[in-house]
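PROTOCOL LOG
Step 1. Enter all chains and additional molecules of the complex.
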Amino acid sequence: MKEHKIYGLIENSPLLPKLPDNISQILFYSKIQWKQILTCLLKKYRN
Amino acid sequence: METDIDLLIEKVSQLNDLNNLMLKNINSGYFRLSREIKSIKEAVVYLGMKTVQNLLIIHIIQQLFSGGEEKRNRMFDMKMYWKHVLGTAVASCLVSEKLKKGDKYKLFSYGLLHDIGITILDICLPDYMDKVIEKIFKGLHQVAAERIVLGGITHADVGAWICRKWNIREDIINIIEFHHTPLYAQSDNEYIKMLYVGDVISNNYYQRLLGLNPNYEMDKQIAISLGLTDEDIREMVEEFPAALEQAWIIIGYCNKL
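Step 2. Run joint prediction.
Step 3. Record the structure below.
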């Protein structure tokens, strides 16, 4: 099914924060992805 | 599972700012804990893993979305929006207390997350958001205004869409997607209905503050299915301003936005 045009506009917006794909892992329990997320967060909070 | 929880605790504890922010909010008094929580580990034990995760997510989202450019001549009032979000969290807790059902801490955190679609729209498509607000000021219901401006979808669809993209936990996606249409939800129904009632109470309160004629009729079928009477709802509407004021002062939630 074709995605709604609003979703395309949001995805192409330069203002959409570029979250790591796996930020959701904060809600799950996978160790490997956790490490990636936390590295990203660490950078964000340190800046 | 235990090892994973330990890992979460360890990693969050290493992020000083996030750790301190979490503990400050948890100990703010709003949660009425019987003693001070000194670590994320204690928070997980006391509030539950899901609630701590939800609170973490909302802090992270606020951080990630707070760096936007200054808005000029906007119809949409972001500060009022965050007040409504806090209002929904508080009102959902009142519903939980009234019914003596559900985990009120979890509901509070769901309340903070439920309108993430509005945050996304405001950041990425501010002109669309302003058109929605224009229509609301003309008397349209928010959902109807959004369907017209956004071509058939609403902030609930946008919020659920972005959370799916981010792989966020399914119960959160459900809360976000169905908070205006709880009867369509396939799971987490009780929580979604309680949040729906909280959302209506909060929305009507803020619409009145804005001098609008609130047009958010509560679906009686949903209230009845939860076991809420008209009297219960009247009492919660009366209790709400004081409960919100208390949360507002204690948490100082919007002051940091």
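Step 4. Note key features.
Chain B has two domains: 1-47, 50-256.
The CA atoms of residues 7 and 167 of chain B lie 20 Å apart.
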